[in-house]
Design brief:
- The structure is a homohexamer of 321-residue chains.
- With 321 residues, chain A is an alpha+beta fold.
- In chain A, 42% of the residues lie in helices and 17% in strands.
- Chain A contains 12 helices and 5 strands.
- In chain A, strand 4 and strand 5 (81-91) form a beta hairpin.
- In chain A, helix 10 (228-242) runs antiparallel to helix 11 (249-260).
- Chains in contact: A-B, A-C, A-E, A-F, B-C, B-D, B-E, C-D, C-F, D-E, D-F, E-F.
Chain lengths: 321, 321, 321, 321, 321, 321
């Protein structure tokens, strides 16, 4: 039986197939009833799901957040959205390989991911760092941070919800900001091009510690309490120590770019950009993220009007045509 | 069978009668199901309605936004509000006049409208402009703009949602602001009375281009992208050209009143009021709109408490007694 | 039949027992259907309830806000919360004492209340005022206000929703702020200790006039229109008159503490704290309220995650462990 | 020797004549030098003045704030403004009547005052209250408050700096707001006209307790710590007690108008306007004050440009022609 | 005698040479003394100057704002800045050519101007429009607006104070934004490149009507009351009419870019950017302006510290090295 | 010749004595004139001073920021403040010990410092940490950070300007916050007392890296670009590594306290307090700093009015009596 993608589900459909468990929270209603509040995903999107009381204690031990799980249930309509009422659920470890074959289990169908070619983006990024960051220590630092975090960077999302919230999203976003930085900095020869490029590459590196990864919608414990600006800054300082690069004003300026890249105190930067390089990285990051949010919102709107629905973050409608 | 007004409908009622289609949007749930999201109206209010999938393709071509349509369906309760589940729907053009007679179709029952006497308001407005705006070009300009937009002005709402959101609402609001201006400006002889009156008459003229009209809840394409302040300003400049009035500081001051009448940049005026006349028109417009919102909210509240529910725009409860 | 507490109710339960009616509002849906919107309480929490149309006219006269009422109905699930669909309801005055005995009516089970020992808190407060406020008129004023409002103060909640929203909450909150003030002011001998203590005791006295009491979720008519800052200030001025204390700068400074204790104009204080004593009382009140809100939110969260759900007032998640 | 008005003084002028002492503060520079920082006034404006160290101890006892004083000194230019360097100064009690005659002392020349006819404004106000406030208790209350405060009300300024900051300013401002209210409320018959009129008359009555009066630029001790909203509210409650009017919802609504008349919490109202009458009084007060500020700024600007200088409160330039 | 540039002047210098009169305002001190408040310029900067009373009436008629004038006076120190005390001043029309020769009058020395090559920027701009805007009407519109405003555009400043406030500044800023747009839009093929380019070229065209020009620091009468967003929008609509381009959604989108290019209502845009093209033009304009402000501030700082003085618009210090 | 303290200087005084050079900046006026802008200090306060052009090149090499220097000059009055016009200046290294003896040089007179007993505060702090932080690693970490930074901590100011801006100020402020924390936390046994105490001790440790020290008014290079929140956080992580304490949730919560202690994003915390311990430390730090600012402002006000001058940070006047 082929996988029915989330975008193709309809109220009343009965399904029996695998999904990715992106979030699993045991909750209790204010009035005392336990249930599991679940966020399912496949390549085409995410969907809310619930396990209600009778089935709860039996199925709770059989699957975990971040796993694939086989699910039987019924699609219902709830406040204009579909929701899955789960009847049976078991994590992939409880399935034999014969059963998996029978169900046509295919993990590629179940994970939302960038449409871009990850290895090619990665190669481009490495090449640019090697060829276009001329300051030896800056180049060495940037390369070592890339290489030591390669596995995560190729897979991490760029954020939990707002933009690039899928596998490979962090690399896609990083790549786009670096692309912008390469073009724009040429027009500003008075800026330190090496710093701008290194800052563009590294600005969001702390996300690798802040987010649980592409299989989850949660922050890590440390990420929730410290935030990716501080975490990214520390990664850079540690990496600089490891290559014995110390006491350099250029290094401090790079650290400043990381801490200042949200641009305003009220957006979580503990310091304002005080160099043109920091302002530049902030503004290109902002440009990339906002254009991406508009593009996603326009593409996902299914109405036939000229304008989309209201966008809750950007606080506006957008023109579609 | 007489029309049952929206305020008299109850859950479980089955109906078969005409409504006005104020908004019709084909939407898709996030999970792929098409439906029509409709806003129905009659004289007494508006009500949400839906056409779900089976009936969708059959009925979608048979009616349009801004039309009257005959509707059969069942009233249901949804989140403390009534909603109509539509089973059959056909635009008025698909009905023979015999059928219309049989159903007792009466368009006067179906359109929310001002309770005031439109022709009389219009006559008063014309009289005041002729008698109380003494500056010849200002008077001529104001008169020509009134006369060339008479049809729309007698019908347009003053806004989509906030206040005077019904047929004739723009004229009602304009009339009220002009009434205020006439009384108040007498107490400020140092102000240019002609400018205040002309500004009061014309301040919202751009609404005629921004809004689709009283049969719709949508902005026009241009209205959404340009806004009624810029649109109204342009109408005035064009009209001035047509009467060959140019290069006058009084004309620029009138234009300033239009652009500045929201009073603050964050409310959409690209310039702050820099003349007393502009400040006066802004403040009277604001007074009229807010008192109207309070009056409507107090009248529509159906609880028995001394205070109303929370008003989302004014962010407060109000005393009813 | 023993009372089933609100925290133990489940969807589908049929119940027939007593509750406290904390709020009772006759409302009409936008489309004209009357119903009673009710907030029920027992010691363990509150729950929404509705009386729909058929039963409405029969039962509406038989019970009132602030009363205990015997209720028969069915628990339903509505937007992830339980809601009681009331079938029969009668205020306690319509029950014979035999019936009450049969049902095991016990008012102690029905009223949310502080867990602290009210008489003991009260004694401590009186003792502290007598022993630690050395200024004779300040002490006399504070004592007379305590004694003349003893009954209410031992019962009133500290707010309708945010914190200490239960019987005895006002005394609990007052006691906690005074406890803080006693410890902190020792470290600031340059402040007027008498004023800080009296201000801490009296800062929220206006709540006795603003709120209906612990049996209701409503403000009084005067409370809604004047607010507890002004109301508390007037109580102090009247009490000062009664003990013929007038024209004193210390008295004015105490009045200032009451009016300024919200700390900022935008939080409803008509004047900013202009003395250290006023700033101190404001900040300790703020500290006590916010820590309490965090404690309540952490304790009430039933998920198994390390972090709570979003807190709507404090606008953040909180760490639970 | 005739009085030379402040507007006619020039740098280098030596003068020897009387002024009003509106503010007298003994200050010390951060580096320890004592001086008197004085604000002088005559009918045409105010001017800064200083008494420096040598003369200080001799002259300080000889004059007081709120007095007329004979002053000898030299006009100097300081930061584009004139400032008087005082060489000798003596309060009026130290002058014989012959000396006063010789100097041509004329108190009418020395006090900034409204240009309007105070007795006539007062009569109009009384008449309107008697004829147009029909509710007996409201009328009685308003009349008694007017009569019991007649002396102050005919003399007080409406504010220290912003608008109507001169003798009779409070009556002028009150009169103007009432004039507006009378005209505007006619157009809103659904409002309680009595309440609007009484609110308009009484809205700023607390200024009589907040401000020292027209001879000073200081707040009173109580005014600084409590503010005129609370003070005005108390005056009304006391007056109501005196006429034994109690427990009336209309009275509470009048009190609400006083407390809410700044319109927003951040402007010092402890409650938002929750009645249309309160909103109306707030908006007319705001309109009157702002138009007055614009008029004053335009009239006082001495440049030849089409636009004035920047207005620091309204944060804009204004068109003069 | 060679011109001594403003950056080389010292307190105590006596000078006798030509300057540009960028601002000339006849003002009166609050205390009645007339003077001329003047802003002088040469290529290296601007300096405040004053003509005091004796010389005033004689010299006021002899020179005007926007003119070159020969000036004799003495440089004085005023609040850490130099100021010129003018003793004699005559506009250039009062000088014979022999006199001009003698003084070595050279207008190139007196006008602050871009350091870039204006004709070359202009040619590039035209070329890009011709080669890279493929939509015929958009290209024609953009070209006609450039050509019909060529003279002004080559000379106008981009703003009065904030950035590019010198001759040719508007073209320099426009050129830079277009340069950015050309590079950045390549990376976003899903955007309408023609619209982005046309929007980048035309976004500030209204400055030609808002500002008096490079010889003055004033807004025009219309510019002050209407603002360059509305003015620029009208220029585009008129130009579209002239090439008979009407009723096009692309045209409306271009108009939207102009009105939305300040990005937020509180910065004076009457509508938010609702297309990606409008957001892009806004963000590149913002980037260009802010980097320019930082560059100017860093270059003009004369301290020896690592960080500059506080920047009043960007509200921060900046790193210089 | 005895040192004349800054608070005792008067305009016209000629002095010849030692001061501390807290700030020394070579600046150029906008019009090109070099000067030294200096901030002098002695125990009683700070005073602005200038070295103008002739003396500049001779004296600039002879003294440095953070040094004592012998200064001859004349006290002048500038904008109501005293300013020293320096005629001769030489750093202490250019004086022989005989000269120093002759001048009565005494460094204790020249450094603004806390009035509290530093060694005793330090002992108390150590004792409290040892006795009241029971968690072994937390205690060890806190002790090691105290001991390794003892020298700086006993000397550093707590801020450059706002409060405790003098030698020993950081210890005084830390001590006061810890004192508060010890008393307050007793009343909240549900909080982790160890965390609150450790957080109170360490919250401002980053100031040791952010500020140059008590002899300077400058931030360090790193402090300006990174800020003391990030810097303090890193100090804690490094110290934890050194005692091999890792991977502990308690440690992360301590780190969270440091990063969150400004309480709001807009005050520079990159994360909001998400634990009660973090909220507690934030609020006690805020309380201590604000009460201190009020106390200082009240004590330093030299006027004779009941209220102080306006406080620019707290934006209010304060009552003095």
């Amino acid at each position: 039986m082929p996988h029915i993608f989330i975008t193709d589900l309809k109220p009343g459909d009965k399904i029996n197939q695998f999904f990715l468990i992106k979030r699993k929270e045991r909750r209790r209603t204010r009035t005392g009833k336990d249930y599991l509040d679940i966020s399912l995903a496949d390549r085409t999107g995410t969907m809310a799901a619930k396990v209600w009381s009778e089935a709860l204690d039996q199925f709770d031990p059989l699957f975990a957040e971040g796993q694939f799980a086989g699910i039987a249930g019924r699609v219902e309509s709830y406040q204009d959205e579909l929701q899955l009422n789960i009847e049976r659920i078991k994590g992939i470890q409880h399935w034999s390989s014969e059963q998996l074959d029978l169900t046509g289990f295919n993990p590629d169908h179940l994970i939302p991911a960038t449409g871009l070619d990850i290895p090619s983006l990665w190669e481009d990024l490495l090449t640019w760092v090697k060829e276009e960051i001329h300051h030896p220590a800056l180049q060495a630092l940037t390369l070592s941070l890339l290489k030591n975090n390669e596995e995560g960077w190729k897979q991490w999302p760029a954020s939990k919800i707002y933009h690039h919230a899928y596998k490979g999203g962090l690399l896609e976003h990083t790549f786009r900001v670096v692309q912008l930085a390469r073009e724009v900095v040429k027009l500003y020869p008075e800026l330190n091009q090496d710093l701008v490029l290194a800052g563009a590459v590294l600005h969001d590196i702390g996300k690798l510690k802040e987010l649980e990864g592409y299989l989850s919608e949660h922050n890590t414990y440390e990420g929730q309490l410290l935030g990716h600006l501080a975490q990214g800054w520390e990664m850079i300082r540690k990496a600089a120590q490891e290559i014995s690069w110390d006491d350099s004003r250029i290094l401090t300026q790079l650290e400043h770019i990381i801490l200042a890249h949200h641009g305003q105190l009220e957006f979580g930067s503990p310091v304002l950009p005080q160099t043109r390089e920091a302002l530049m990285v902030h503004m290109l990051d902002d440009l990339e993220g906002k254009i991406k949010m508009m593009t996603d919102h326009i593409e996902q709107d299914r109405g036939e009007e000229a304008f989309t629905d209201w966008h809750k973050v950007l606080k506006r409608k957008m023109l579609k045509e």
